[in-house]
Design a protein that fits this description.
single chain; 94 residues; mainly alpha; Arc Repressor Mutant, subunit A; two-stranded antiparallel sheet; 4 helices
Length: 94
């Protein structure tokens, strides 16, 4: 596969996609991730996505996997969960 100019950014875009579009209720398959990466002009193969997910896990991103008819991935925990963010927004800190 010929490498595009954005190929080095692939893992960063993958992290961005997972953080913005997944949670326990909204998961993505590897094929979904490949499709999303194509929106950024990045081509990817299934094996490279598995390697990238493992690298992101090693980096400290909590990526969980759920198997059913398909294997779905999502960000399991974040720095701030939604209730914590709402509390911070509502806080009248000075």
């Amino acid at each position: 596969m010929a490498k595009s100019s954005n190929q080095k950014l692939k893992i960063l875009y993958l992290m961005k996609i997972l953080q913005e579009k997944t949670d326990e209720e909204n998961t993505m398959t590897v094929n979904d991730m490949i499709t999303e990466l194509e929106q950024y002009g990045i081509s990817a193969e299934r094996k490279s996505i598995y390697d990238d997910i493992e690298a992101l896990r090693h980096f400290g991103i909590d990526i969980a996997m759920r198997k059913s008819k398909t294997t779905d991935y999502f960000i399991a925990s974040r720095v701030f969960e939604l209730p914590e963010l709402k509390l911070l927004v509502d806080c009248k800190c000075q």
